[in-house]
Write a structure and sequence with these properties.
Blueprint: E1 5-12, H1 18-26, E2 45-51, E3 54-60, H2 71-84, E4 91-97, H3 103-116, E5 124-129, H4 139-144, H5 147-155, E6 160-162, H6 170-190, H7 199-227
Parallel strand pairs: 1-3, 1-4, 4-5, 5-6
Antiparallel strand pairs: 2-3
Length: 228
C-alpha cells in the first residue's frame, strides 16, 4: 500500500520559528535555525522524511522582511519553492509568532497573496509559534482580539495550531505535529484531494515535460544516426 504524500511549504516572517517548526516535524535538526543576530534561511531548502505514516516533503522558504535580502531575490527564492513542490502543494503553513499582529504581519499576508494568489489560503494552515507566551489565554481569544488576524484565520477555514518553543520536548512536539498533520489531511479531503497549482507551477511542470520530450527525441535521433 502506497504511503500518502504531503508537500508542505513553510511561509513566514524572519525569526518566527519556521525552521524550528520544520525540525519539530522531523524530530531532528535538518533545517538551519537562525541565530540571535542574523537570519539563516536565505534560499529554499527541501527535505523529505516519513512522519506518522506519511511521506512528508517540507520546503522551508526565506523569511519575509530579511533586511539582508533584496525583494527581487526573495521573490526568486519563493518562486523556486514552486519548482520544488511540483506537481503541487498540499498545504501552506503560515508561521506567525505569538505577538501583536502588526502592519508588518499584514504585509506578510499581502505578499503571500501577491506571490501565490488568494487561492493559496484555501490550502493554508496558521501555526502560532512561541505558544508559551499565551500563558492561560486561549488561542480563540487571542485571535478574536484583532479583526485582521480573525479575518485571516477565517480565510484559512479556521485552521490554526499553537506550538510551544520553550524547550525541545520530543514527545510533546510529536503530538503537536500529529495534530497538525491531521488538520492538513482533513483540509486535503475538503479540497477533494486537489493540490494548489498556480500558473507558474503549471508552466514549470509543462517546461519539465517539454525538456523531457526534447531529450527523448534527441536520444532517438542519435540512435537512428548510429543505425544508418
Amino acid at each position: 500500500m502506497a504511503v500518502p504524500e504531503r508537500r508542505i511549504v513553510l511561509l513566514g516572517k524572519t525569526r518566527t520559528g519556521k525552521s524550528t517548526l520544520g525540525n519539530n516535524f522531523f524530530g531532528e535538526e535538518v533545517f538551519k535555525v537562525s541565530g540571535l543576530s542574523n537570519s539563516v534561511t536565505r534560499e529554499c531548502q527541501c527535505e523529505t522524511r516519513e512522519v506518522h505514516g506519511r511521506k512528508i516533503t517540507l520546503i522551508d522558504t526565506p523569511g519575509f522582511f530579511d533586511n539582508k535580502m533584496c525583494e527581487e531575490v526573495l521573490k526568486s527564492e519563493i518562486t523556486k519553492c514552486v519548482t520544488l513542490s511540483s506537481p503541487g502543494v498540499h498545504a501552506f503553513v503560515i508561521v506567525l509568532k505569538v505577538e501583536k499582529f502588526t502592519e508588518q504581519e499584514k504585509e506578510v499576508i499581502s505578499k503571500i497573496k501577491k506571490l501565490f494568489s488568494e487561492e493559496a489560503l484555501k490550502y493554508a494552515v496558521i501555526v502560532f509559534t512561541h505558544g508559551d507566551h499565551f500563558e492561560d489565554q486561549k488561542i480563540e481569544d487571542f485571535v478574536n482580539e484583532n479583526h485582521d488576524l480573525r479575518s485571516l484565520v477565517e480565510e484559512c477555514g479556521g485552521r490554526c495550531h499553537v506550538m510551544d518553543n520553550r524547550y525541545w520536548d520530543k514527545e510533546r512536539n510529536n503530538e503537536e505535529v500529529k495534530k497538525l498533520l491531521n488538520t492538513i489531511d482533513k483540509m486535503v479531503q475538503q479540497n477533494n484531494g486537489e493540490m494548489y497549482t498556480n500558473e507558474v507551477l503549471k508552466q514549470v511542470h509543462s517546461m519539465i515535460k517539454k525538456k523531457t520530450a526534447s531529450l527523448l527525441k534527441a536520444c532517438q535521433m542519435k540512435r537512428q544516426k548510429k543505425n544508418h
